[in-house]
Amino acid sequence: MIMNRLESILEHNRKFVENREYETYMTDRFPDKKMVVVTCMDTRLTELLPRAMNLRNGDAKIIKNAGGIVTQPFGNIMRSILIALYELKATEVFIVGHHECGMTGLNPDVVLEHMRERGIADSTIEMLTNAGFQLDRWLTGFDNVRDSVEKSVRIVSRHPLLPPGTYVHGLIVHPVTGKLDLVVDGYTGQAV
């Protein structure tokens, strides 16, 4: 019998717990390095970025989304940053974009076509559009990763609820080598 993906995960998890492999990862909910990292969900960064930044389990709160971007000052990403700063003892924010990001040049028309191919009815898309939801804006990526990082740093650093004295840095990581390029030095507030 062939196991499906869920069964495979649950079987692995049973052994993981039974063999007490979790003990290697034990920590508490407070980031040891008092950092919040906002980055992309790109699979190439899953292990590479923490290693490139010298982060181990428990060192930082890592928030991931498509593009590693903060688009709304009162959206979920910003709320998560604020919770990490106020409730989880983080003191610095790192916005980390990456080269070769899939959000670069993302075309909303192509995304909508892929939605249709996967079974979303035109009537659903029309209903959302007629209700005033701007799908094209919502599904648009960015043209330049550096500009995207700078914009996200601006949104976070100028937020009215950001604790005074919070450093907000901007970096770009190479998804193959892990090389970090500084974009915004949060200590000086200057783009590099």
Short description:
This protein has 192 residues and is an alpha/beta fold. Helix content is 36%, strand content 18%.
Question: How many helices does DSSP assign?
Answer: 7
Query: Which sequence of SSEs, written as H and E, runs from N to C?
Result: HEHEHEHHHHEEE
As for the CATH topology of the largest domain, it is: Beta-carbonic Anhydrase, Chain A
What number is the mean pLDDT? 96
Q: What is the C-alpha radius of gyration, as a whole number of Å?
A: 19 Å
CATH class of the largest domain: Alpha Beta
Summary keywords:
Beta-carbonic Anhydrase, Chain A, 2 domains
Description:
The chain has 192 residues and is of the alpha/beta class. The chain has 2 domains: 27-104 and 143-191, 3-Layer(aba) Sandwich (Beta-carbonic Anhydrase, Chain A), CATH 3.40.1050.10; 107-140, no CATH class. 36% of the residues lie in helices and 18% in strands. The protein has 7 helices and 6 strands. The protein has a 6-stranded mixed β-sheet, with helices on both faces. It is globular and about 50 Å long. The mean pLDDT is 96.
